[in-house]
Design brief:
- It is a single chain.
- By secondary structure, the chain is mostly helical.
- Helix content is 83%, strand content 0%.
- The protein contains 8 helices and no strands.
- The longest helix is centred in the first third of the chain and has 47 residues.
- The protein is elongated, with a radius of gyration of 25 Å.
Length: 228
């Protein structure tokens, strides 16, 4: 019977969704709470909140795009350099392979067949050095656009929760109270799901995410109320 190992393989897309959703729930909630401490009309809070969600989604999506493009460009640069080193300084690269394996207690004699195989297959050698010497993984094609869409889209979805009560209730205090309940519930649920996906303790992840959102909103509300 084959043993199937259960490892988390959600990868970069899950990370992007987590980043976007976390900020989407927290930042608009904090802004809405802060503005609620200074104004008396839900419409003003809603307008400010929607503007922030649009601006935040664009900014974070663009940030994700640029970060992914930067990773891809860095990988391409290092790949070209590693190929040149394998072609021109093969002996040095062979010693580096031996040093990498020596860290795991593998002797030079035991590594010799591996080095021999690498000498016959330079692409495999380069790929090995990229992964295990430099710690770089080959970027996924189209990664930059997917990252931008995942972060920006999840930010919009997250920002929807704290603002809906301001669409329903005219009274700012009432809208703020409902927004707090809805958003903190969403934060708790999101934190729980994130922890489940990544294999972390579910309850602890849910509580940590909720506390961060509550502290951000509380600080924004207190400062706005103080200077209003």
């Amino acid at each position: 019977m084959i043993h199937r190992e259960a490892h988390f393989r959600g990868g970069n897309t899950v990370r992007d969704i987590v980043i976007g959703m976390s900020d989407g729930l927290t930042v608009p909630f904090a802004l809405a709470a802060g503005v609620s401490g200074a104004v008396a009309q839900s419409r003003i809070v809603l307008t400010a909140g929607l503007a922030e969600v649009v601006a935040g989604a664009i900014a974070m999506g663009l940030g994700g795009y640029l970060a992914s493009r930067g990773d891809a460009e860095h990988y391409a640069s290092e790949l070209a350099r590693e190929r040149r080193e394998v072609e021109e300084y093969g002996e040095n690269e062979a010693r580096e392979v031996e040093e990498l394996f020596a860290a795991y207690g593998v002797t030079a004699a035991e590594v010799a067949p591996i080095v021999g195989a690498f000498r016959r297959n330079h692409e495999a050698w380069v790929d090995f050095m990229m992964r295990f010497e430099l710690g770089l993984e080959r970027p996924e094609p189209g990664r930059a656009f997917r990252s931008a869409a995942a972060i920006g889209g999840s930010y919009v979805v997250g920002g929807f929760f704290p603002l809906v009560p301001y669409m329903i209730f005219e009274n700012v205090r009432q809208a703020l109270l409902v927004s707090a309940v809805v958003t903190l519930g969403a934060l708790f649920t999101f934190g729980w799901l994130k922890a489940r996906v990544t294999g972390a303790p579910s309850v602890r992840g849910a509580i940590q995410t909720t506390i961060v959102g509550a502290l951000a909103a509380g600080a924004a509300f207190g400062l706005a109320h103080l200077f209003a």
